[in-house]
Amino acid sequence: MNRYPLWKNLFILTVVACGFYYAAPNLYAPDPALQIAGASGAQQIDERTMQRAEAALTEAGIGFFGETLQDQGKSALLRLDDREQQLRAQSVLARELGDGFIVALNLAPTTPDWLLQGGATPMKLGLDLSGGVHFKLEVDVEAATERKMAQYESAIKKRLREERIRGRVSLDGRKVVMQFRSEEDREAARREVVDLYPELFLDRIDDGENWALHAEVTEQTIKELVDYAVAQNLTTIRNRVNELGVSEPLVQRQGRNRIVVELPGIQDTAEAKRILGKVANLEFRLVAEANAPVSERQKFEYRSADRGGLTEWLERDVIITGESVSNAQAGFDQNGQPNVMISLDGEGGMMMSRATRANIKRRMGVLFIERKYRTRYELNEAGEEVVTRIPLDEKKLLTAPVIQSALGAQFQITGLDNPAEASELALMLRAGALAAPITFVEERTVGPSLGAENISLGMKSVQLGLALVVLFMVAYYRVFGVAAVLALSANLVLLVGIMSVLGATLTLPGIAGIVLTVGMAVDANVLIFARIREEINGGARPQTAIDTGFERALVTILDANITTLIVAVILYAVGTGPIKGFAVTLSVGIITSMFSAIVGTRALINLIYGGRSVKALSIGGIRSATAQQVGPSS
Amino acid sequence: MTVIPFMKWRWVAVALSAAAMLAAIASLSIKQLNWGLDFTGGTLVEVAYSESADLSAIRTVLDREGYEGAIVVSFGTDRDVLVRLPDGYSDEQGAMMVDRLRAATDMEIELRRIEFVGPQVGDELRDDGGIAMLTALGLVMLYVAFRFQIKFALGAVIALAHDVIFTLGFFSLTGLEFDLTVLAALLAVVGYSLNDTIVVSDRIRENLRIVRRSSPNEVIDISLTETLGRTLVTSLTTLLVLTALAVMGGEMIFGFAVALLVGVSVGTYSSIYVAATTLLQLGVSKEDVMIPEREGADQEGLLP
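Structure tokens for the assembled complex are given below, as produced in the milestone run.
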């Protein structure tokens, strides 16, 4: 009695072994490291750069090792001997390599090969443990809607004028209000508006002498508008975050109109914000004719790496800037070739048409303007080094297509090589006009020392809590207590293993969740042991008591844990950031603790007591000695 | 086994609980909660000075620089300083303030953390938190009503509400800061207290079915006595680890640990008295928990 078949024991052993395997990477402390990447995406890190970096570090007396190239040579990693020197090493490298490179703080995992082969990786640390910046940005829905309404109004006005329909057009909140003198005019206008913007909800309103037509945006359209604005901001922010050179950034949409940005390792929030909020702009200019005087033209380089080094001469006069671009979308033209459709606002369209009418068959260049900063190191009067950052606008050429005909508020750029190029170009063209303004609604910065302190405090509380529980359980339940403690340890290992496999992020509340799990996980065992004691005190034989105890406690354990799981899931659904971490630990903890307490402890108890005759159980709290001797002796 | 006459004392417990609830609700409506930054919005800056910091000097600097309404307190040690700015300062002010503090002293200042929360976020969190709490209570009630019976569900939910209000009242009375982690702890309290209540309810249900010729009152006493050992042991182990967390976990997790300590303690009491008393007053009986008999199986015949 009370013996598990071999397969069941093997199964438990396998599960626990897997737990150990996947939890193991967390035992290897990561190396402090620096990551070097080019300031522009495509830039390669070559041997010479690495040699310069190594020489600079050696000269500064900073120990390093394990330098490797990553991402097909697009970035390099240097591991440092001493964490204390990480910040100093960063500034040494930033200075040596100059503005063309980004040097970021990093923690390089030291997971050995035999673990990496099985896909085992350590848990990621949340910002409250690793240090870094957390931003929450909000897309201004109101402003985006207003901008869209203004666009509707001007486009409808223009169409009515073109079609010679007389009437007054004005804006009223989320409605475009049109008033006409006759019903015929109104019907004609209605047909035009339907043709132009099928998404608008139209309503005829008569107030005696006026025939009015209201065009209202639906909630659905607003929702699409917000989605579009958020998606565009996400893309833009991702590109800019990459520029910050953070090792593992997180850019994520949250809710309807929020974007969460997490930058581990970044300390300088001002710098991060400057780059996130960086304004890019565009200029459309004609390509200068060969005989134009030098005073009227300027030379620009192409931005893309494929045309690296190529230049064009553009006129000094600007036709329009990026502010006039209301939209740019990649697609395909009637021949199935990739293209980019560009929409301008009313004024921009007029300027464009005026400029292009007389210049058909000439070429028009599109300049992309980015605000960059140059770092200067100077000594002040006191002999201290002062770091200043001087802003400068970098203007580079995106494309210079031939003007095929007079252009208006809508035109397309064709002749692009592939769809990828088209969407890249569309993104760049939109960058000037962010679909909606964004504001910072939340910001949290955690210094590296606080992060490290949180880890050590968290670990200490786990250890102390575990030690107290172990002492209590063994003292109170004897041999059964030992089994419970072993199962509890297996539970911890499984918990950490599963969290690592899930790619969960460990946060401070997450550690608190682990501590809490330790305390609560013994509950299932306590329930079982209490039942076994009851059975024995009720006169049952030891083997029967074990079996009945486990069986009868099972229903209770399931009910109790499922209800707690419901609460944990709700916590996950509504919580943000660290709270989610807590909910994940709690949920995983509940599941692993049920496994280890019910199956794991049973296996151990079976190994200790199963399949032989037992006179007494070492479980503590047995009232009378006679109760234990009811069983047949041997 | 000696049955402890728990239910004999239930009116004392009801009086105690009622008094505690009244005090908690009174404090919550008069004193309210000391909402943390997560809920009020505003800016919080924690810095560590290289030597012990002079708070009044820091206050003078902040006054001079025009930071109105800044609250300066030491945090943990006398070298750690926490400055809280009310809502209304822009998101750049935190970092700028650190620069100004650095300029005003010879000591090294290390930035520990800056938190900025806009007003719109805070209101939302408070609403979401409340909704989460109500959803949790609602779903739990449904599950218990489905697995047990509606009277048990009412008992469980009243016990949970009791624990949550008690813990909230504790935070209101002591003026401890109520931040996001405390909200999480409160939901964990719901989970824990529920666990306890379910175990007790489970035993009451079982005993109602098997113990014959006993009043519900006695059955509940028997069940509570039987589960008392387990209830105390689990609470004890949980309280042990929570104490470890409160003592060792550091300032950032202290509120969380305290909320759980209070919640778990009162949860242990409520699973014994609040849930069981409610059950008794609702008139729980054998009929409520009978497993419906199968048609035709072992039925007595009744023929004309």
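Chain B touches chain A through 69 residues (CB under 8 Å). Chain B is about 65% helix and 10% strand. Further analysis is deferred to the final report.
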